[in-house]
Amino acid sequence: MKRAGIAILLCLSLCGCSWRDAGDLSPVTAGAITRDNGAYLLTAELAVPNPDSAVPQSITVTGAADSIAQAIDNAGAGRDAQLYWSHARVLLLGTDILRSGMRETIRALTVSSEVRPSVRLCAVKNAQADTVLTTCASVSGDPPGFALGDSIELAVKQSQAPDMPLYRVLDRVESDGIDPVLPAVSIEGEQAVLDGAALFSGDVLCGWLDKAQTGVLCLLMQTGDRAAVYDTSTRYPLTGIDPVVRADASAFTVTITASLSCEDRTQAEQAAEALRVQCVQVIRTLQETGCDALGFGRTWAEQHSSSEIDWRTAPVTVRVTLRGTQSAEGGSR
């Protein structure tokens, strides 16, 4: 908790506060939201002053209500303090919300003046969302929610997790254009870990990707400034990634170019073909689940407004060109 404490302590100092005199402020480092019989259950991970140390301690509080705003108020009602949400790093959403449609929850969070639009959203699978904050162990002294924020930050830069802050998710569920994809979180042992991605059709959960598939999708979405392709057990770092999607007469063509660090042309060819096959598999999963994370549906509608062929059944051709020590192209079959 030391690094988390220093960061939050700095935020308080910038607004003229310190732990000793913060008084009515309880900074929130992460939150979790589920629904039970129509009511919102909100759990907040707090950094609170520790009388025996300059480093704050972490606790969780919970509030339930029919609205997000009231649940936030109720979560802080048991403390002589106001919950301070401006520096929350992640919000974990339970599958009960995701399966029934998250539009109402996203709208409510956006309207709330408590939650900043840039907080990242995550989907929790195979566990209750609140248990990530209440039962998982700390990581190097940081509470699980705060540590998860670190993991997501790094994973986004490496194209291993989608970057889905609240404002972007709202835009996607309201625009009927490109569907959102949330980082997935699960519990392994006593640790909260990133575990692939949650796919959505509109605002409704429609499927999951594993870690490897998520990396490929993030590459296609240009999430980070670098990525990697795996050929069996070999990892090839990629930079300068440029995917282009086009809708032709009766099919999609996806062209990917990138720079690759490899030993020779043979390795470049193998990596290009491995990435081509992986891209085809991920795109087929998007089509089968109806998750338009790459904007295929919108592109198809613009090009084929009168076509009877649905984007979910249209053929897809993927071409990969990797610029390494020598260039190689993995064409489509």
SSE succession = HEEEHEEHHEHHHEEEHEEEHHEE
The backbone outline, from C-alpha atoms, is: globular
Number of domains: 2
| Terminal-residue CA separation | 52 Å
Instruction: Give the biggest beta sheet.
Output: 9 strands, mixed
Structural class: alpha/beta
Helix content: 25-40%
Compute the CA-based radius of gyration. Answer: 22 Å
Sheet-strand content, in percent, reads: 25-35%
Outline the secondary-structure elements.
Layout: H1 2-14, E1 25-36, E2 39-50, E3 53-65, H2 68-77, E4 82-84, E5 90-93, H3 95-100, H4 103-111, E6 120-124, H5 129-134, H6 144-157, H7 166-175, E7 181-188, E8 191-201, E9 204-209, H8 211-221, E10 226-231, E11 234-247, E12 252-260, H9 265-289, H10 296-303, E13 316-323, E14 327-330
Parallel strand pairs: 1-4, 1-5, 5-6, 6-7, 12-13
Antiparallel strand pairs: 1-2, 2-3, 7-8, 8-9, 10-11, 11-12, 13-14
Helix pairs in contact: 4-7, 8-9
Main location: membrane
InterPro entries: GerAC_N, Spore_GerAC-like, Spore_GerAC-like_C
Pfam family, one: Spore_GerAC_N
Structure report:
By secondary structure, the chain is α/β, with parallel strands linked by helices. It folds into two domains: 208 residues, no CATH class; 105 residues, no CATH class. It is built from ten helices and 14 strands. Strands 1, 2, 3, 4, 5, 6, 7, 8 and 9 form a nine-stranded mixed sheet that branches. A five-stranded mixed sheet has the order 10-11-12-13-14. The termini are far apart. The relative contact order is 0.10. The C terminus is likely disordered.
